[in-house]
C-alpha cells in the first residue's frame, strides 16, 4: 500500500515520525508492505514553493491509498493580511480528495480521568463518534471583503447533507444505533435544509434512532450528559467547535485521532491537535493522537482491522501502564512514547 | 420608569411574574415607581395575531425605558417548514431596538459547585463577562433556499465590529482589564475583518490587555482554564454557542441573566434559558435568571446601581441558604424562590 505522509509544520513532523514508526512495526509483524512518500503542505510548503498545497503534493495524494497529515500552521504564517495561509493547503486538500466525512471518535481512558476538567461521574460511558461534514459550509463558500465589510457564505446542497448523513447512520448501525444531528434550525436556512434532509434519510434506517439538537444546547449537553451520545453528525463549522470542546473531556488534545473519508478509498488521517509551535522540535509532543490516526488509516483505507485493533490495544496499554508524555502528566518524550507503543504491539 | 414585559411562551410567563414581583418589591422599598405593561411576542403572538412580533408590541418596546422578556418558542411552533416562527419575533425585536451588545455574565456560586459538571478546582475564580454581538452575522444575513440547496450569508461591517468592541473594552476597564476576542480568522473572511478591527480599536485602550483565540480552541479553553477569562467578545453565532457551553459550568441554565444593550438607553433583558416546554405551567422553573436579569435592567437602563446590587445580594443569599428549585437540587417552586428573594431584600 502506498501511504503519502504530509508532516507539515510545528510538531507535525515529530508526531508523523512516530506514527510511521508504529505503522512500519505493524507491517513487519504482519507481513504487509507500506511504501511511504513524504510531501510538503502548509507553512513549510509556502516557504519552499510559495504554495500551501504544491501540485506535486496533491498529485501524490490522489495516487495514494491513504494520506497521513501531521499538522499545519504557526505564528510565522499567521498574519491576517497574508495572501497565502497554511490552512488553505489543508482545506484545498480536503476538497480535492473529496473527504466529506470527518470521523472523530472520543473515549476517555480511565487512567486519564483525573486530567479531564469534567467530574469523574460525568465521564462514565463516554464513547462518542463525531461525524463532521468536512467539504462544505462556510469553509468553502464565497467570501467577499471591502474596506467596510466582509461576508462568508455558508452553503449546503441536499446531496452534501445526504451523503454525510448516510455515513453517520451506517456507522451508528455498527455501534449503539443512535444518531444525534446538530444544527441551528431555528435561525439558519442551511440548518433547516440540514434537518429536513437528515430526517428524510433517517427513514432508510429504521433500526437507528434519530434525535435533533440545536448547536447551542448541544454545547451544553456535551458537558452535562456526555454519556448519552453515540454518533453525532453536524456541519463543518459546528463540528469544528463541538469536537474541540469534546476533546477537552479526554484530558488532552494530544490523544485524539481523526479520519476523513470520501466516496473512494483514499482517506486523510490526522491527529486533531494543531501544530503546537510552542513545543515544536523539542521531542515532547504526545504522539498518541497521530499513532491512533495511523490505526484508523489501517482500518478505513487498507481494510486491516486486526492490525488497527492491535495498535489501539497497544496505545491503551501505554495509557494504563505508562510511560506518559508531559500533556498527560508524565515526563516521557515523543520518541519514548512511540517506542513504548511499539514494544506493546507484541 | 416604563418597563415593557414580554412573557412569551413556555415558562416565560412564570419567570416574568417572578422578576416583576421582585422589581415591584424593590420599587416599594426604594420609592421608585415602575409602570409595567405586558405585550405579546413569539408563539403566543403567532397564535393571537399571526405575527411573532405584532406592531403594537414593537411600538410599546420602542417607547419604553426597558424591555423584559421571558422566553419564546416551543414544539407547537417548531415545524421546520412553518412560515413564521417564534424566534423571528425575538430576532426582529433585537434588530429593531438596535441592541447590538448582549452581555452574559458568568459566575459560579460556591453553593452550586457540586452541580457543575466541572471539577471544583476548575471553578475557582470563574468570573467571565461574555459580550456577544447580537444584531449582525449569519442571524441577519441574506438566506436562500431552493429544492436542492440553501445558503446563509454571514456579514459584518467594520462599524458593527467597532461598536461592540468598544463596549467590551469599556466593560473590561471596570473589571480586570482583559479582553479575549474569539473568531475563526484562519478560515472566515468576516473573522479576519473582526480580528483586524478589534486589534485596531484595542489601541484606544492601552490599559486593557487583548488576546485573540480561535473559536474551536476557545470551546476547549473554557473548560480547561475557565478562570483565565475576564471579558470575552465575539460574533453572534459563536457567542450563542460559547455562552451556552459556559452556562453549563454554573450548574444550571436557570440561574443566568442577560442584558442586550444598544446605543440608546432602552435595553432588552432576558434569562438565557429557553421556554422549557416540558416544565411549563408547573410552577417549578427557576426564576433566578429572570430575577437577575431584572437587576441588570435596573443597572443598565435605569441607572439604579444600588437597587441592582440589592437584588444580586438577595439572590446570593438564597443560593447560599436556600430554598433551592429543582434544577439546583431542591424542591422549591418558582413562587417560593421568588418569595425567598423578596424576603432577602431586607
Ligand atoms: C486548521 C483548521 C483550518 C482546521 C479546521 O478548522 O477545520 C482545524 O481546526 C481542524 O479542526 O482540523
Ligand atoms: C432563541 C434563539 C433564536 C436565541 C439565539 O440563538 O440567539 C437563543 O438561543 C439565545 O441565545 O438567545
From TrEMBL, chains A, B:
The UniProt site entry described as Important for catalysis is assigned to 139, 184
Please provide the record's keywords in A-Z order: Amino-acid biosynthesis, Branched-chain amino acid biosynthesis, Cytoplasm, Leucine biosynthesis, Magnesium, Manganese, Metal-binding, NAD, Oxidoreductase
Judged by the first EC level, this protein's enzyme class is oxidoreductase
The answer, when asked if Kinase is one of the entry's keywords, is: no
**Residue ranges constituting the Isopropylmalate dehydrogenase-like domain according to the UniProt record:** 2-341
What is the reaction catalyzed? (2R,3S)-3-isopropylmalate + NAD(+) = 4-methyl-2-oxopentanoate + CO2 + NADH
Protein name (database record)? 3-isopropylmalate dehydrogenase
Organism, by scientific name, is Dyella flava
Organism ancestry: Bacteria, Pseudomonadati, Pseudomonadota, Gammaproteobacteria, Lysobacterales
Tell me what gene encodes this.
leuB
Amino acid at each position: 500500500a502506498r501511504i503519502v505522509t504530509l508532516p507539515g509544520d510545528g510538531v507535525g513532523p515529530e508526531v508523523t515520525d512516530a506514527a510511521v514508526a508504529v505503522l512500519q512495526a505493524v507491517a513487519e509483524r504482519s507481513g504487509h508492505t507500506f511504501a511511504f512518500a513524504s510531501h510538503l503542505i502548509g507553512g513549510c510548503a509556502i516557504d519552499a514553493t510559495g504554495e500551501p498545497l504544491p501540485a506535486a503534493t496533491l498529485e501524490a495524494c490522489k495516487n495514494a491509498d491513504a494520506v497521513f497529515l501531521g499538522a499545519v500552521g504557526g505564528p510565522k504564517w499567521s498574519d491576517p493580511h497574508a495572501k497565502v495561509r497554511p490552512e488553505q493547503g489543508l482545506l484545498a486538500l480536503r476538497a480535492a480528495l473529496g473527504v466529506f466525512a470527518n470521523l472523530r471518535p472520543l473515549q476517555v481512558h480511565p487512567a486519564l480521568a483525573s486530567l479531564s476538567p469534567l467530574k469523574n461521574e460525568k465521564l462514565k460511558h463516554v464513547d462518542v463518534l463525531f461525524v463532521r461534514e468536512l467539504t462544505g459550509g462556510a469553509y468553502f463558500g464565497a467570501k467577499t471583503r471591502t474596506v467596510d465589510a466582509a461576508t462568508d457564505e455558508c452553503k449546503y446542497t441536499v446531496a452534501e447533507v445526504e451523503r454525510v448523513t448516510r455515513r453517520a447512520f451506517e456507522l451508528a448501525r455498527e455501534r449503539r444505533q443512535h444518531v444525534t444531528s446538530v444544527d441551528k434550525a431555528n435561525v439558519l436556512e442551511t440548518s433547516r435544509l440540514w434537518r429536513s434532509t437528515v430526517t428524510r434519510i433517517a427513514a432508510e434506517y429504521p433500526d437507528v434512532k434519530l434525535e435533533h439538537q440545536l448547536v447551542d444546547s448541544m454545547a451544553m449537553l456535551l458537558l452535562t450528559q456526555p454519556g448519552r451520545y453515540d454518533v453525532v453528525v453536524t456541519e463543518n463549522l459546528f463540528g469544528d467547535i463541538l469536537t474541540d470542546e469534546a476533546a477537552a473531556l479526554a484530558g488532552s488534545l494530544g490523544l485524539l485521532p481523526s479520519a476523513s473519508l470520501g466516496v473512494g478509498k483514499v482517506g486523510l488521517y490526522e491527529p486533531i491537535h494543531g501544530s503546537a509551535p510552542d513545543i515544536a522540535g523539542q521531542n515532547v509532543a504526545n504522539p498518541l493522537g497521530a499513532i491512533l490516526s495511523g490505526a484508523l488509516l489501517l482500518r478505513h483505507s487498507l481494510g486491516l482491522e486486526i492490525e488497527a485493533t492491535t495498535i489501539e490495544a497497544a496505545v491503551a496499554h501505554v495509557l494504563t501502564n505508562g510511560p506518559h508524555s508531559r500533556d498527560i502528566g508524565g515526563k516521557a518524550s515523543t520518541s519514548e512514547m512511540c517506542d513504548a507503543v511499539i514494544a506493546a504491539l507484541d
